[in-house]
Amino acid sequence: MTDPIAAVRQAFPDALLATEEAFGSPVITIKPESLLEVGRFLRDDPELNYDLLSSLTVVDRLKLPDYNASEARFVGVYHLRSVARDGDLLEIKTPLPGGDEPVAPSVTGIWPAANWHEREAYDLMGVTYDGHPDLRRILLPNDWSGHPLRKDMPLGGERVPFTVTWDDEEFKHLGKQIMQPEQRLEPVPAGMDPKHMILNMGPQHPSTHGVLRLIVELDGERVKNVEPDIGYLHSGFEKQAENVRYKDFVYYTDRMDYVSAMQNNLSYCVAVEKMLGIEVPDRAQTIRVIMAELQRIASHLVWLGTHALDVSGTGHALLMYAFREREEIMDLFEMACGARLTTSYMRIGGVSDDLPPAFIPRMLEFLDMMDKRLVEYEEMLDENPLWRKRLQGIGYLSKKDAIAMGVTGPMLRGSGVKYDLRRARPYCGYEKYDFEIPTSDLGDSYGRYLVRMAEMKQSVRILRQAAAMLPEGDYLLDDPKITPPNRDLLDQSMEALIRHFKLFTEGLTPAPGEVYRGIEASKGEMGFYIVSDGGAHPYRMHIRTPSFANLQSISMMSKGHLLSDVVVVIGTIDIVLGDVDR
Amino acid sequence: MGLESYLPETGVVTTTLESVVNWSRKNSVWPLLFGLACCAIEMITTGTSRHDIARFGSELFRASPRQADLMIVAGRVSNKMAPAIKRLYDEMAEPKWVIAMGICATAGGPFNNYAIVQGVDKIIPVDVYAPGCPPRPEALLYALTKLQEKIDREHLRDHYPQAQPEKTEAGVYVANTADLPPLP
Questions:
Q1: Average pLDDT, chain A
Q2: ipTM, 2 decimals?
Q3: Touching check for B93 and chain A: CB below 8 Å?
Q4: Is pTM beyond 0.90 here?
Q5: pLDDT for position A175
Q6: DSSP 3-state of A288
Q7: A169 within some domain
Q8: What is the CA radius of gyration of chain A?
Q9: End position of a domain, from candidates A75, A106, A130
């Protein structure tokens, strides 16, 4: 086992400020001036090989109880993974100089994936990155003032709902935009040649799968450059998280990647459970795996239907077929928790309700059907000349580029990297299941199509195993500090009532500290970085979403293709804008 | 078995122009192909096989606002997106209607924060609000039938631009009839 702390200590004895162990993964604090050196060493050292930048964020320490004005207010936090070493995680922290106007060295030269992450930190936290190629706002409108994630900025919104009108001072900012929309038209983006045709695509466009806006530079029909403009669905999840209790944020996570709500729930609960140091009962673990895999199939079906619709004429039929199967999964979710899309089924400590007795037989019926249907889809598409022509060779991403751009999930596996967090860093007992990790060396849209189809088959396989091994027992942990008591006890036992009351008025309070946990969601690594100050609300929460990281490579993948292939590339990335913009 | 069986032998029916126009309008409401967030997925589901919005004459989701009659605001409206929505609405030809689908489009939903506009009715007029987070496809279909009922009650005059009422010194609004366009 390679020890990154010892290696850094040996190579850079002066750079190291502190080391610690946070819930099983090493954390090193280094001086900001040596960040680039240490970063390059960590990436290039053959033993360590931290080549994937999972997430990059900044914490504002202003309101932390142990903060004093003499130390750095902002701390940069980097999460690195080593793909070759099974996603081994390392967290680097560095105090940023500059007080209220912090400055940090840009790591885009080491991990190109940092580009958007740093722009996000600049946009929401106001950190200036030295040496960043294109530092400007990414999520908020260009004329926005202030940086909302700073601790001295209010949450915003309307204090008394539905009272603010156009005439109010608070609404001036928005009003200005709406009255003069032409003000918001930007000049030609940097790096684009005005002699070429500059085409605007979106935010309302049928093929952008939501509210993505692309600025495309065209030479004839050939794409020279693509510049995504995101943030049209920015909803302030991270700021909102700092203002709700841990328990209540489960409800919000549904609404990020809304076609795989269960995965978001799971990712969040796994992170908080790690922080609380609790073990979830076996039955709950297995139910979670069942839900996560059903959701993976549902999410891939949405991808398949919409992608086929964008690409070829047969697509409309396929959209209908894919959604027909997806409805069956929605019915299963409804049986378990009463909701279809935004499920909020997972709870910290388990799941909200036990599976009804009819669930497993119905699911097995569905799986039998799914086996046949997947073959049907493949018969429709695999040898379809139109489908092959439009996908093969389009949106090529090499293994090296994919890792450098921080791409994860089926996108990375479509480039031939056998990396899956379910296998690399098992959670929820994934080590007990027998499944394969499908990969494809093609690296193009067709390869990713093959990977996703194979993944659905593997999910079916996992689901059969989970149904067979579903243990009896509790579906929710019984811990007075964390989970509410059984509802039936409320009118019988005073203790249960007090426990319920305390939990729902005060909430649960993890010990001060920080945690980062990532899971393999349908689209890639979904991770939650949570900082606790010991209170009932998270002090800071950063969400590493797969679509945000994956979308970054769109420019690289579209260059040199025809304009119509940009549509294929959007489809093959499988973005959900709620996941990109948060 | 269709309309013919109700016709008298002469083939003549007397009715008002308004009810014929409304009858045809309400049964071919074409929505704008435009989704924002979670609700958009349920909107797509409404259009697919199980729920089949074609039963209500609204299966033609048009990608161009020029060809659409109905804007289904499906999801949360962010500050960055609000101007685009306003522009899309302005680009739609009269007569046009709006359904605010889900609690976010209705009133901001759980996102009472810096990023989200607290209800799309702050920027465009809304005809029907569909509650839910997200509303089920059935709920959207119900909203659509409610809109059809509303269209049925409309008067042709409603879709002509109205002159702005003027405020007199006494504080009473008086319609300026001189600026009204002539009836066709």
A1: 86
A2: 0.86
A3: no
A4: no
A5: 44
A6: helix
A7: no
A8: 24
A9: A130
Q: What is the dihedral of CA A316, A319, A320, A324, to 10 degrees?
A: 170
Chain A contact present for B63, CB below 8 A = yes
Contacts of A378 (CB under 8 A, 6+ apart): A453
- Return d(Cα A333, Cα A358) in angstroms, integer: 12
| CATH class of this structure's domain B14-179 | alpha beta
Q: Which residues pair with A291 in a beta bridge?
A: none
Distance CA A360, CA A351 (A): 16
A with B: how many residue pairs have Cβ under 8 Å apart? 143
Distance CA B35, CA A205 (A): 9
For residues B53-62, average pLDDT:
88
- Nearest CA to CA, how far is A388 from chain B (Å)? 25
**What is the pLDDT at residue A169?**
62
Nearest alpha carbon to residue A464 among A268, A297, A233, A239: A297
Mean pLDDT of the A133-159 span: 82
Q: What is the CATH number of the domain that holds A26?
A: 3.30.460.80
Q: What is the CA radius of gyration of chain B?
A: 19
How many angstroms separate the CA atoms of B105 and B121, rounded? 8
DSSP 8-state assignment for residue A355: P
From the CA of A469, how many Å to the nearest CA of chain B?
A: 33
Largest CA distance in chain A: 78
Residue span of the structural domain in which A85 resides: 4-130
The four Cα atoms A400, A405, A409, A413 give a dihedral, to 10 degrees, of: -20
A150 is a domain residue? no
Separation CA A497–CA A492 (nearest Å): 9
Residues with Cβ within 8 Å of residue B12, at least 6 apart in sequence: none
**pLDDT of residue A297 exceeding 90:** yes
How many residues can be counted in chain A? 582
Residue in the structure block whose two tokens are 């308004």: B18
